[in-house]
Design brief:
By secondary structure, this protein is an all-alpha fold. It has 13 helices and no strands.
C-alpha cells in the first residue's frame, strides 16, 4: 500500500485519471466476462481433481464454492482464504488430509503454469533488455550456500520425525486417480484459463491504445502474478503497480498509463468477485472455522 501511495504521489492523480478515461465501458464488460469464463474453467479443473480424490463434487457446487474461495482468497494475504472452500465440502470429504491434498494439488497446477510462463518471461526480458547482469560480489551466493547447507543438515538430523509426519500426508496426496489423462486435462485447463486471466491486461492495454509490445506485457504480468502471491499485500496493491511501471519504463512508456492499467484491472477483479461475495454472504463462514478441518 505504501508503494502504491508513493507511485500516485510521484505520478499524480490527474494524469492517471486521464489515462483511465481512455477505456470504454463496453471493453470493461467484455473483460469481466473473460474473467468469469476463466474462473469457470478453473472450477471445472477443481471438480476433476476433487472427483479423482473421491470427493463427489458436482459442477454447480464446484462453480459456487470456487467463486466463494476466489473471493476469500483475494481479501487475504497470500490467497490463504482460498482454503475456505474446504469448509463447504467437509461432509463430502473421505478425510481431512484428502481434502487439504485436493486443494493443494489445485494450487500446484496454478503454480506450475505461473512458474513456466514466468521463466519464459525472464528469458524474454533478459534477451531483450539484459535485466540480469553478472555481479562480482559473491557474498549473496555464499550466504545462500550456507543456508542450504544448514537446511540440509537440519533435514538429515530430523529426517525420521519429518518422515513420520509427512508420510500420512504423502499417502493422502497420492490417493488421487488422475492418471496421465487427468493431469494433462488439468494442465490444459489451467494454461487456457491463465492465458485468459493475464490476457485481460493486453486486452485493456489495447483498448486504451497503449503502444506496448503485447508479448512483453503478456509475459511480464506472469511474473507480476508470482509476486502477488507473497503474503505482503491484498489484491496485489502496490506490487502490481510497481511491476507494471517497471515494464512500461523498459518500453519507454509513461508511468501514468501503467498505474491506470493496474487500477482498471484492480476494479475489474473486484467486480468479477461479486458472484463469490454474494454466495459467501448467503453462506458465510469465519476463516477461524478452518481450524475445525484439521
Amino acid at each position: 500500500m505504501i508503494l502504491f501511495c508513493l507511485l500516485i504521489y510521484k505520478v499524480g492523480w490527474e494524469d492517471t485519471l486521464e489515462s483511465i478515461k481512455k477505456v470504454s465501458i463496453a471493453h470493461l464488460l467484455v473483460a469481466i466476462v473473460i474473467f468469469w469464463i476463466a474462473f469457470y474453467l478453473k472450477s471445472v479443473r477443481w471438480k476433476i481433481i476433487s472427483n479423482s480424490f473421491g470427493i463427489p463434487l458436482h459442477s454447480y457446487q464446484a462453480l459456487k464454492i470456487f467463486f466463494i474461495g476466489l473471493f476469500l482468497a483475494n481479501i487475504t494475504p497470500g490467497k490463504l482464504g482460498d482454503f475456505g472452500r474446504l469448509f463447504y465440502i467437509k461432509d463430502q470429504l473421505p478425510n481431512q488430509k484428502v481434502g487439504w491434498s485436493s486443494l493443494i494439488m489445485d494450487r500446484i497446477f496454478d503454480l506450475i503454469c505461473l512458474v513456466f510462463f514466468s521463466l519464459i518471461a525472464l528469458f524474454y526480458y533478459q534477451i531483450n533488455f539484459k535485466i540480469l547482469k553478472p555481479s562480482s560480489n559473491y557474498s549473496s551466493a555464499l550466504l545462500l550456500g550456507i543456508v542450504l547447507v544448514v537446511l540440509l543438515f537440519v533435514l538429515f538430523v530430523f529426517r525420521k520425525k519429518i518422515k513420520k509426519y509427512i508420510k500420512p500426508w504423502w499417502e493422502a496426496f497420492n490417493s488421487h486417480t488422475l492418471g496421465v489423462k487427468g493431469v494433462l486435462s488439468a494442465l490444459s485447463i489451467t494454461c487456457f484459463s491463465m492465458v485468459l486471466i493475464y490476457g485481460v491486461f493486453n486486452y485493456i492495454a489495447w483498448s486504451m491504445s497503449i503502444p506496448i509490445n503485447h508479448i512483453g506485457l503478456f509475459l511480464g504480468v506472469f511474473i507480476l502474478g508470482l509476486l502477488t502471491l507473497l503474503p505482503i499485500t491484498v489484491l496485489g496493491i502496490g506490487v502490481r503497480e510497481t511491476s507494471l511501471v517497471i515494464i512500461f519504463q523498459l518500453y519507454g512508456l509513461p508511468s501514468q498509463d501503467a498505474i491506470a492499467l493496474s487500477l482498471i484491472i484492480f476494479l475489474l477483479q473486484l467486480v468479477s468477485f461479486i458472484p463469490g461475495a454474494i454466495w459467501f454472504y448467503l453462506s458465510p463462514i469465519q476463516l477461524s472455522q478452518l481450524r475445525d478441518l484439521e
